[in-house]
Hints:
By secondary structure, this protein is an alpha/beta fold. The protein has a single domain (7-293), classed as Luciferase-like domain (TIM Barrel), CATH 3.20.20. It is 32% helix and 17% strand. It has helices spanning 21-33, 76-84, 104-117, 131-135, 143-161, 202-209, 227-241, 264-270, 288-293; strands at 7-12, 38-41, 91-93, 97-98, 122-127, 166-169, 174-178, 192-197, 212-216, 247-251, 275-278. The strands form 2 sheets. Strands 1-2-3-5-8-9-10-11 form an 8-stranded parallel beta barrel, surrounded by 4 helices. Strands 6-7 form a two-stranded antiparallel ribbon.
Amino acid sequence: xxxxxxxxxxxxxxxxxxxxxxxxxxxxxxxxxxxxxxxxxxxxxxxxxxxxxxxxxxxxxxxxxxxxxxxxxxxxxxxxxxxxxxxxxxxxxxxxxxxxxxxxxxxxxxxxxxxxxxxxxxxxxxxxxxxxxxxxxxxxxxxxxxxxxxxxxxxxxxxxxxxxxxxxxxxxxxxxxxxxxxxxxxxxxxxxxxxxxxxxxxxxxxxxxxxxxxxxxxxxxxxxxxxxxxxxxxxxxxxxxxxxxxxxxxxxxxxxxxxxxxxxxxxxxxxxxxxxxxxxxxxxxxxxxxxxxxxxxx
Length: 298
């Protein structure tokens, strides 16, 4: 399962950018100039993104999440269109689009358009989304229903991207003999990457059915395992159920609050990582462009 080399992704959380949308576009251009392989703005509707667990510090005693102040959060797909128009090689995607809160046919058209605009450089990272992405806008968040809509949406998008007339009759969505054109530039489609929190195994089964995984790990309550132990456990299990594991995104440095353990990159490659991502922190704000221009980690 070892990969010989990995690509480096820059995750861009708009909470560090403020309301300067042009800066978000410029940073994607700088990322390509500086050797980054992919540019992935965050995608949530509500920012700061609330947790779903009641023990989080900003959840009230009644269990309802409230924010003292919301922050600017530009639409990442529109930002990526700006980046696409000024770049040639860097891969473009989001971290991570909550698919069930959007209409799948609109997502299919938006991404197909961006893939054409970028000459086939889009990676589609999809997830369920957070509770507030739904409930804050009057949409009930029932995990079973959201999961069903998620799976139907993925299938609809896949069928629409094939360019054929689609008839689909699901529990939540229906399509009556419709084709949405143009299709994406990539064939058979842009990679569909599935997000998931380990040790929940269902998202990893989805990733094995599609084109790979964007996992989050080490955040569950009571976890005492190191990032290295979790990678071995998580990807060992994933490889056991995936005929073709596809793309695998892992952090360029583990989130243990310590310096990366020796051999982290080798470990990630040993377990099949194809991407290592870097997530800017608040100390980048002093010179965001300068930090991006330093390029990806060695």
